[in-house]
Amino acid sequence: MTKRSIGPRTLLYPHPDLIIGTYGTDGRPDVMVAAWGGICSSSPPAVAVSVQKARQTYENLIERREFTISIPSADYVKEADYFGIVSGRDTDKFAATNLTPVKGDLVDAPYVGEFPVVLECRLLQTVEIGVHTQFIGEILDVKVDEGVFGEDGKPDIEKIRPFAYDSMRQEYYGFSGSLAKAFSAGKGFKQ
């Protein structure tokens, strides 16, 4: 199949919808949505998120060096979108959306109580990349709502119902179910 070049862009499918939770210098809980992020190490378990210097969350991360990442379910797509279109400098995003800030058990950062998956992170390092700073955090704990575990005792993505961001169309998309078993589906190609 012929490919058409569309030039260098911030394009990756899918972009996760990550809600970064921090406390401001005044102690007020704040959240922002970030699509530039993902797992970056398995040992230690770590996640990276990229934040522009102009964001309130950037200042909070530099000051506090701890953060959470909340994974919203599709039920909260409007709230998650709102977190990305207003600034924590002049808006209490939790009050505006009627969501609950919960103080992390292991870090000095809030998470969104209604969202089914939470990562508590301590800053390991930062990397300057153009207009963004990549914050790499060690995952100290993962908290998962009891109601989203499967019969096998593991978190069930179909119960969590996360969604992804399409940066080209600026739209959110859900997932439609399992396609194949990882580390198994491709075994037929082994010689």
From TrEMBL:
Cofactor(s), names only, from the UniProt record: FMN
A Pfam family: Flavin_Reduct
PANTHER family hit by this protein: FLAVOREDOXIN (PTHR43567:SF1), FLAVOREDOXIN-RELATED-RELATED (PTHR43567)
Keyword Amino-acid biosynthesis appears in the UniProt entry: no
Protein name: Flavoredoxin
Source organism phylogeny: Archaea, Methanobacteriati, Methanobacteriota, Stenosarchaea group, Methanomicrobia
Protein family per UniProt: Belongs to the flavoredoxin family.
Keywords: Flavoprotein
InterPro entries, sorted: Flavin_Rdtase-like_dom (IPR002563), Flavoredoxin (IPR052174), Split_barrel_FMN-bd (IPR012349)
Record domain Flavin reductase like: where: 10-165
SMART domains xref list: Flavin_Reduct (SM00903)
